[in-house]
Amino acid sequence: MSDQTPNIEDMNDRSREVFRRVVEGYLETGDPVGSRTLTRTLSENVSAATIRNVMQDLEYLGLLDSPHVSAGRIPTQLGLRMFVDGLLEVGDLSGEDRRKIDQTLTDGEDDVTALLDRVGSALSGVTQGASLVLTPKHEAPIKHIEFVSLAADRALVVLVFADGQVENRIFTPPAGQTPSSMREAANFINAIAEGQTLSSLGGIISREIQQRRQEIDNLAATLVESGMALWENEGETNERLIVRGRGNLLTENESESDLERIRVLFDDLERKRDIAKFLDLTEEGEGVRIFIGSENQLFSLSGSSLVVSPYMNADRKIIGAVGVIGPTRLNYGRIVPIVNYTAQRIGKIITDRS
After folding, report:
1. What's the CA gap between 289 and 142, in Å, rounded?
2. Is position 208 within any domain?
């Protein structure tokens, strides 16, 4: 296997199509897919030998595997992850699936627990997989938080709660963040996190932001009144205190000690604002997540996949989740819209009832 993590964008059209056909064939039948089968389905006319060479290259990259002595290939966990992230075509929810879910959700009692029990049964029946329903519960205190940069516009937050629950959420970080700034944000939050929930942590940071802003105002007031300084974009996130009309922020002058204190407070204010954004984004955590095999510790030994989506209350806070557990060769294109639709419907029902 190659040491370099493969990228779907680096594949040529032939490799991408062979890879996609192998994965789709495996997801449909559960059997290895051979080169002769692919010669009948590929969009271009190529020989079985050519296809075998492409499959060997994909195996070298760690995307395909040959079980036993079979000439066919199946996707690896890495291959399935790449397929789900880059090539999965999610279908529309079928009318029959929608009808079954709607019937379950509009049928029966007002009790939320009873509703979620029926949802679990309905999801199992519709998908032929085991269902997962996490009911609304109190927001547990945070034990530890970690931010992991995945790409320029994607990051992972790992939340470890005091009750032992662990959650992973994907979010888009504030612009300009680096892995080191994310570590700093996590270190600050962890230093004050004990016994605090995400919501209460947000309140603590908000109060610190207000306090820093008040300190800056008090120190800057004399400078502004004397005409030595003026505000630009006052009160906004890109505010600056411009000294003596020069564009660079907080240059040195006679009030050096005040200016140095203001400079330190500005740096601290900016960090607190970034941390507040991190906490807001962490709480949102929307969207269907797909965990494959050992990506989810709970199912790492069983070769299973989990497709899960959170549902929210009227304040857009996550209060629970629904999902489907099945073999790694789940029909992801069909399961994802079912889970997504179910989560949206539950969220709406709970919001309406509240």
Report:
1. 22
2. yes
